Amino acid sequence: MSAPLRTPLKTATGLGSAKEGTSHFVKQRVTAIALVLLVPWFLWSLVAHYRGGYETGAEWLSQTHNAIAMLLLVSAAFYHMRLGLQVVIEDYIARHGTRALLLLLNTFVAAALWAAAAFSILKVAFAA
Description:
Number of strands: 0
CATH class: Mainly Alpha
Helix content: over 70%
Structural class: mainly alpha
Oligomer: single chain
Number of helices: 5
Radius of gyration: 21 Å
Strand content: under 5%
Largest sheet: none
């Protein structure tokens, strides 16, 4: 049997892998794939309807498939943003208290932005 690959410092502090890196990596890649598909659709829709004004946009968003796709787009975008900022915060903020506060703030801001976007999409979709 082989000896464990732990340094004396690692053994003393008990710090090791958090075992969440792969899950985080996969989530980031899945949201990136969703955005690769949804952003060109959104840009094409924007270009196709940009001259119509609010009424044309509201009519476009009132179509079920467009409202669902927009909800998927903002959900993937804000979740992807949260995951990316989490990596930046964890990698570059050394103080534990500051890191914890920024991670909490990151989650709440992403959730608030998503809620505002989802509410706006649904309000326009159901009002038209």
